[in-house]
Each structure stands twice: as structure tokens, then as C-alpha cells.
């Protein structure tokens, strides 16, 4: 365990309004917590507020009511630059589209969030990046350019990249959304392995029923509310 707080993330009565074109409440008193080591999925119909919630939980959107705690710390109301650092340090992101930089090597891509954080030297980061690649059986691809990989391989690299700073929490937004069944299974199995072998805390928004059913706990949303958790 990396720290002493058993709760990685806690949302308390989170409300979110959009004002364009008319005032609409898209999150309604959303409360839940994610304990350290938990692998949690967030499901619900299109438009129920999943992405909006993830954007808030990831500290990117600060325009909400309610309270958010990360790693035992109240982060609501903290300044933007503080949150940016916190995000780099504590959250690893895996999106539907991998956002790898095609002109850089696989190894360099994985190192990028580490270079941003500035906690480790370049040498250390190279070592760490190789270590992460090994988890995904991708070492032999380290020096390839990102665009020389298959879709499934790219997504594995994206997960390796999310791990570079040993984050408290991995947040995923439809990590298998753009993959075929075979590659979805590979990516899901990698998430599962991170949960089981490394006790990695993960919160993943997904439409993929099979993926959700394989997680420790499902948070289900409907019309801006959590209806099951
Ligand atoms: N910037 C915005 N301005 C106004 N309304 C928005 C904005 N972003 C999202 N919404 C609305 O908020 C609601 C929730 O959207 P959100 O993207 O969070 O849903 P979702 O559950 O992630 O959907 P999907 O599964 O399709 O990605 C929707 O009704 C959407 O139209």
C-alpha cells in the first residue's frame, strides 16, 4: 500500500448543472466511495452523466457542488495548479482513444506523464517504463513508433503509460470502447491482473457489460443519480 488512507476517492453529494441552452441538472447528489484496491465500474445509459462525473472526479472540472476527497484529502476548492499536480501524481488515465503520440516511440510515450510530474529522472523513467511494458508483454515493442502497433497493442501501451507514476487511482473512460472482442478481452484481462496482482485501484466508465460484470463492484447511474452501488 502506498499510503495510509483506505479510501482512494470519495464523492459526497455532488451536483452538476449545465446552463446551455437551459439550466439542467446532470448530476444529482452523487455519493459513493472507492476503497483502495477496489476495481469499480460505472455503468448507465447514454446521457446519464458518466462522462460528466468522471471529468469532475478527475479534478478537471471544478464547477460542481458537493465535496470530493482524494486519498483522504478534501480537494474541492483547491487551486487549479495544485489540482493539476495532484492529477499527474495520483491519477492514471486510460481513454477510449489512446492518444499516443505517433512520432514518439512506445517507451517515450509511456514516459511522458512521468516527465510531466518531474519526480523521477529520465533514467529512472526509462527503467520504470520498461518495467510497465513487461507487465503487458510488450517489451519487444519498446522502440517502435506508436503508429506501428495494432489497436490492442496501443491500448496496452496506454495502460502502461497510465501506470508510470504508480498512481493511487486509474480512471478509465470506455477503455475497450474502440476495440474488437479479442482485444477487449486482452485489455480487460490486463485490468483484472492489475486489480488482483497489484491491488491497483481503478474506476472505469464502460458500456461493456462483460467488462462491468468482471469488476469488483458496479456503480449504476440513471438520469444523474447513482441507483445502485
Ligand atoms: N457542455 C455541456 N453543456 C450542456 N449539456 C451537456 C454538456 N455536456 C454534457 N451535457 C449533457 O449532460 C448529460 C450527461 O452527459 P454525459 O456525457 O455525462 O453522459 P454519459 O452518461 O457519459 O453519456 P455517454 O454514455 O453517451 O457518453 C447529457 O444530457 C448531455 O447532453
How would you sum up this structure, described in words?
Pfam families: ABC_tran. The protein is built from seven helices and ten strands. The chain is an alpha/beta fold. It has a single domain (7-228), classed as P-loop containing nucleotide triphosphate hydrolases (Rossmann fold, 3-Layer(aba) Sandwich), CATH 3.40.50.300. It has a six-stranded mixed sheet. The longest helix is centred in the C-terminal third of the chain and has 18 residues, at 181-198. The radius of gyration is 17 Å and the shape is globular. The chain starts with 6 loop residues before the first strand and ends with a strand. The mean pLDDT is 93. The protein binds adenosine-5'-triphosphate. Adenosine-5'-triphosphate is lined by residues 18, 20, 26, 44, 46-52.
Number of domains: 1
CATH first level: Alpha Beta
Q: Can you give the helix content as a percent range?
A: 25-40%
The distinct ligands, each listed once, are: adenosine-5'-triphosphate
CATH superfamily: P-loop containing nucleotide triphosphate hydrolases
Q: Count of helical segments?
A: 7
Q: List low-confidence stretches.
A: none
What is the name of the CATH topology? Rossmann fold
What pattern of helices and strands is seen along the backbone? EEEHEEHEHHHEHEHEE
Based on the coordinates given, report the CATH architecture.
Answer: 3-Layer(aba) Sandwich
What is the overall shape? globular
- Strands in their spatial order, largest beta sheet: 6-7-8-3-9-10
Q: Tell me the structural class.
A: alpha/beta
Describe the biggest sheet?
A: 6 strands, mixed
What is the gyration radius calculated from CA atoms?
17 Å
Report the average pLDDT across residues: 93
Provide the β-strand percentage band: 25-35%
Protein name: ABC transporter ATP-binding protein
Family: Belongs to the ABC transporter superfamily.
Keywords: ATP-binding, Nucleotide-binding, Translocase, Transport
InterPro entries: AAA+_ATPase, ABC_transporter-like_ATP-bd, ABC_transporter-like_CS, MacB-like_ATP-bd, P-loop_NTPase
Amino acid at each position: 500500500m502506498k499510503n495510509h488512507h483506505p479510501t482512494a476517492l470519495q464523492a459526497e453529494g455532488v451536483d452538476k448543472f449545465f446552463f446551455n441552452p437551459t439550466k439542467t441538472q446532470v448530476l444529482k447528489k452523487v455519493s459513493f466511495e472507492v476503497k483502495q484496491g477496489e476495481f469499480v465500474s460505472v455503468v448507465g445509459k447514454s446521457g446519464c452523466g458518466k462522462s460528466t462525473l468522471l471529468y469532475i472526479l478527475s479534478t478537471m472540472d471544478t464547477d460542481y457542488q458537493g465535496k470530493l476527497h482524494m486519498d483522504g484529502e478534501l480537494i474541492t476548492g483547491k487551486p487549479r495548479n495544485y489540482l493539476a499536480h495532484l492529477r499527474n501524481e495520483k491519477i492514471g488515465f486510460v481513454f477510449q482513444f489512446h492518444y499516443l503520440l505517433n512520432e514518439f516511440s512506445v517507451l517515450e510515450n509511456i514516459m511522458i506523464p512521468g516527465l510531466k510530474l518531474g519526480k523521477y529522472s529520465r533514467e529512472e523513467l526509462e527503467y520504470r517504463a520498461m518495467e510497465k511494458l513487461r507487465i503487458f508483454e510488450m517489451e519487444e515493442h519498446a522502440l517502435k513508433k506508436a503508429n506501428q502497433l495494432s489497436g490492442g497493442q496501443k491500448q496496452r501501451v496506454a495502460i502502461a503509460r497510465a501506470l508510470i507514476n504508480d498512481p493511487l487511482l486509474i480512471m478509465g473512460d470506455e477503455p475497450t470502447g474502440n476495440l474488437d472482442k479479442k482485444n477487449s478481452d486482452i485489455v480487460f484481462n490486463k485490468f483484472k491482473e492489475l486489480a488482483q496482482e497489484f491491488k491497483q485501484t481503478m474506476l472505469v466508465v464502460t458500456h461493456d457489460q462483460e467488462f462491468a460484470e468482471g469488476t469488483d463492484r458496479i456503480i449504476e447511474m440513471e438520469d444523474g443519480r447513482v441507483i445502485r452501488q
